[in-house]
Amino acid sequence: MVSISNGDKCGMEQTAAVVVTYNRKDLLEKCIGSLLGQRGASCDVIVVDNASTDGTRAMIKEKFDVPSVRYENTGANLGGAGGFQYGVKKAVQLGYEYVWIMDDDTLPNETALLELFNADKKLDGNWGFLSSVAYWTDGSICRMNIQKKNIFKHIGDNEYKSDIAPIKMCSFVSLLVKSDVICELGLPIGEYFIWTDDYEFTGRISRKYPCYMVPGSKVVHAMKNHIRVNFAMDDASRINRYHYIYRNDVHCYRQYGLAGWCYIILKDIYTVFDILIHSKTHRMRKIRTVFRGFIEGLSFYPEIKTVYE
Description:
By secondary structure, the chain is of the alpha/beta class. The chain has helices at residues 25-36, 56-63, 79-93, 112-122, 157-161, 179-185, 197-206, 243-253, 257-278, 283-298, and strands at residues 2-4, 15-21, 44-49, 69-73, 98-103, 106-108, 129-135, 165-166, 175-178, 212-221. Helix content is 38%, strand content 17%.
């Protein structure tokens, strides 16, 4: 593991923004700029680089050679899940009280962190995690990042109109978590590699503590497409990676008992029919991927690691 830093702790902040990146230095530069431009509340930045080959390290050194930005190279592509596990662990070990988690294409509004801490005051600290509202580049709600009020339902218009709305699951696109909660309940599961690690982690927390979406805290998720993952319509080059989502879903949702199993089975059946109806090529290969992921998930028992092991 390789790091570039100026001492054991980046700065004097109580919050560390953990940003996982892989070969997207231009987006990463904008993300870091948005983080350093926060008003009313501030944070240090820990960049977790999954061994990028596009000059990410050089860009950090050139543009952000300051004590408040720490660069960590994992030495290999650990996937998003592995990167978040690595970065969250590092932030807690460095002594930060809060960890602000996000992808490298997240662009927080200049008061995004302040609004999260305003919610903290209203809640008198009684929360496990707080989630921002993610917008797409056209100003509409980003459909990839709509929070869940339970395992079957996403939030709706009423939640967006409130000051603070209770939720159960959300993405890692601007998620504030207490280090004490992480120490108690464990890190994100790196073995997931990609997909569902955010829902598993936030669901684990919300089963123990009340958790909330904060409409006043806003970020832009500068992703290419403004849609949820759609296996039926995705191209052949990405088929192999999809087994992760169907494997990880089994592990994540079976923790909710009968309701969780119903969700998994209904979702997989829907996906198979969606593939049969809408996929123009590779139908059987995609269906086999769904079933392979499900079967793999039945015997998938990843370890939930703690901060200091």
